[in-house]
Amino acid sequence: MFEYMGDRISKAIKNIRGMGKITEENISDAMREIRLALLEADVNYQVVKEFVSNVKEKALGLDVSKSLKPDELFIKLVKDELVDLLGGEYEALKVNDGQTILMLCGLQGSGKTTTAGKLASYVRKKFNKSPLLVACDIYRPAAIEQLEQIGKSLNVPVFTKGKIEPVLIIKEALEYAKVNKNDYIIIDTAGRLQIDEALMQELKDITNNFAIDESILVIDAMMGQDAINVIDGFNKALNLTGTILTKLDGNTKGGVALSIRHLTNIPIKFVGDSEKMDGLREFHPIAMAERILDMGDILGIAEKVEDVMSEEDAKDQMQKMRKGSYNLEDFLVNLKQIKKLGPLENILKMLPGARKMGLNNINVDPKELLHVEAIVNSMTPYERRHPDILKASRKQRIAKGSGRSVEEVNRLLKQFEQMKEMMKNFSNGNMKMPF
Questions:
Q1: 148 falls in which pLDDT band (50, 70, 90)?
Q2: What confidence tens digit (pLDDT) does each residue in 72-92 have?
Q3: Is residue 94 part of a domain?
Q4: Cα–Cα distances in Å, from 406 out to 398, 399, 409, 411?
């Protein structure tokens, strides 16, 4: 998502480079490009109008200091306005010391039931909570069975009572949770093809009978601007505390993310970026704005890495990079960790300057990683720690043992040395980000 919009905005800003100062004349083309980029990304027209007006007004009122170039100042201004549009500060999920009750609502097909499972996985991992999934979608065929399957895959309990009234289901679920010490209750409610009185009354009955801490609307990002009407409709009945945007890993233009907070004042708390149970990301406005502008999403990468590497291991790796003692033994460990992060191309897209370097269009064949792993595994521990001893005879043995060619072994060793040097420069602060 956002790639096309981000490319257009970055191109518009690039045209300001070389200018001595910011004037109405030299930013007019850039503002027109940004306006078109936002509109084509399905951002609400009124939001685009206000955004362009704010950027233009602030840009013309700025003095360009000697330390900053006009394009650098302008891109900072655009980033700040994007952050403001996206909500400014990150609004965290409510987590009580004792029991927390969260209710998910939304239209059919928004990914609500899958999101319930993702949230259960998130609160257990992030806050060490003991979640309970409550099946209150009593209308959609196989909805209860779907939630049970999700719970089974996560080893999270699912409370079901068949197709009785949701209020009665929740009442018994809370008693069950008290006995079984489940302290984070996630209620999966029924959806409809469209908002109707029966749906809203059912949700109102739940909120009137129980102290709901979070009422979160799950929205399919591919809905476009219709999402605003859906949010307003649910909010009038429930006083929503947040939204979760799903299917942001598809071909959605992403414009709805730039419109929601500004038009509804309801924060986006998470985005769903894959069908997997770990495919739920906290929505940080600063990180999202930087990603739109091809500044990368280092926070997003850090979140993914947290799942496969401890803080102590990360510090140890950084020390080795600084000293230049990072070796193929470390590389092998990291390679196994990378495989757990999911498709490598998704990680590359999150690097600063990824679109500029063409990394957003790269498809990494998982077999290539297996070939690399086979080559490194065919080395002795001493060879992995001292790759400089790898001469012709050793390389031939490694190639034979891994089922690869000597050329591939040589290519890997060369790329490893280049990567090692790059990481050393980066960790020592000697490498500039590509933006």
A1: very high
A2: 777 788 889 989 988 888 999
A3: no
A4: 8, 5, 5, 9
Q: Residue 159 forms beta bridges with which residues?
A: 134
- Do 171 and 285 lie in one domain? The reply is yes
Which pTM was predicted?
0.72
Residue 236 lies in a domain: yes
End-to-end Cα distance, the chain: 20
Total domain count, the chain: 3
Residue 377 CA to residue 219 CA, distance in Å, equals 45
User: Three-state DSSP class for 360?
Assistant: helix
Closest CA to 111 of 266, 281, 275: 275
CB count within 10 Å of CB 178 equals 11
> Out of 94-103, 106-115, 189-198, 212-221, which region has the weakest mean confidence (pLDDT)?
189-198
Scanning 164-225, the segments in alpha helix (DSSP H) are 166-180, 197-209
Mean pLDDT of the chain: 83
| Chain centre to alpha carbon of residue 295 | 14
Burial 81-116 (b: 16+ CB within 10 A, else e): bbbebbbeebbebeeeeebbbbbbbbbeebbbbbbb
Spell 55-67 as b/e; 16+ CB within 10 A means b.
Answer: bbeebeeeeeeee
Compute the C-alpha angle 72/298/1, nearest 5°.
80
Domain holding 374, by residue range, is: 303-427
- Cα–chain center distance at 298: 11
Question: Is 432 inside any structural domain?
Answer: no
95 part of a folded domain:
no
- CATH code for position 16: 1.20.120.140
Residue 20 to residue 16: CA distance in whole angstroms: 9
